[in-house]
Amino acid sequence: MPSEAGAVPNFVPLAEPLLVGNEWKYVKECLDTGWVSSVGPFVERFEREVAGYVGAAHGVAVASGTAGLHTALLAVGVGPDDEVLVSDLSFIATANAVRYCHAYPVFMDVDAATWQMDPEKVEEFLRTMCERRGDGCYNRATGRRVRAIVPVHILGFACAIERIVETAREYGLRVVEDAAEALGVRYRERHAGTFGDIGVLSFNGNKVITAGGGGVLVTDNRAHAEYARYLSTQAKDDAVEWVHNEVGYNYRLTNIQAAVGVAQLEQLDPFIEKKRAIAARYEAAFRGVGAITTMPRIRDVAATYWLYTVLVPEATTLEARRALIKRLNASRIGARPLWHPGHTLPPYRDCPAFRIVHSPRLYARGVSLPSGAGLTPADQQRCIDVLLQQIASLDH
Ligand SMILES: *Cc1c(COP(=O)(O)O)cnc(C)c1O
Q: Quick check: 394 pLDDT over 90?
């Protein structure tokens, strides 16, 4: 709604759910039939439809993307004192899931041009810092076994996934793709999340579509899918006799959440179109503005622009970038920085990190702008105008 002069403009959120389809109808069906908990027809339908959408043979619904990453890592065999290569520029859930397995993340840099995990440095780390022994690949500095890589596709783009999977195979490593931000993203026509052993999608409220909260593991490997489902339902071996042969988890998605997810999935393609239009408008507005670097174009990637993010000039100090975001927020625009480099955060300061250069630079320069599928052209124009104003007065 356009605001009158002097009136406080409405707050423009970074990314909020857009619930304009069959959400009410399907949730009502759950309440009317009593199927409200972790078993029910919508759970199975959600699993089947998400897997079908991305072109994977199996889908396993879980309570969150984070729970999905944890379960996937366990399913591919990550265990105590293993190491897992993760990107330094990702939401903290990726590294946390590794720690839930009592394993250690090894932080890898991102590529300056794509902002995604750098496949060259991953290869270089394995080639120069690790050695192969009979039962696997070991980090010489720590003596720990490197078990897996978690390539993450950030901001609605895809990382160099084919290259990373190839490297992983060469070194005998498993691949769990963190595709939490990449539902619908395609790399050479194939969906993000379907290249590794298991892919993990998130349906949190800020993602392209939501189930209120939730995640789905996708895989072509039946054994992985069955083991993940087993682990996420308390490792139930005999339901009648209460026999559990392993420590499992209560990670299942509820039928109510799945009902919301199924309704949202029906709207995914139009939402992606809206996000592409939003990205095109930002790009057109910032083209030719020297102080703003727009999002990369990555060859072979059909992006969905989960969060449209720009970079302020290299010379900008971290303080100035912080002040810029504060001023945008004061103007009621839900801008946010990129994630704090993982290897500098207190829980991970003592974990290995390999030749990290670019992720702190991107963190210092990145500003994510309102990008929800429900963003109106008028609200987006205000975001553009305020950003251009603030950029012009940016002190370095
Ligand atoms: C959102 C997100 C997750 C976690 O998903 P939740 O459903 O919120 O637990 C993991 N990794 C990345 C990169 C994410 O953006």
A: no
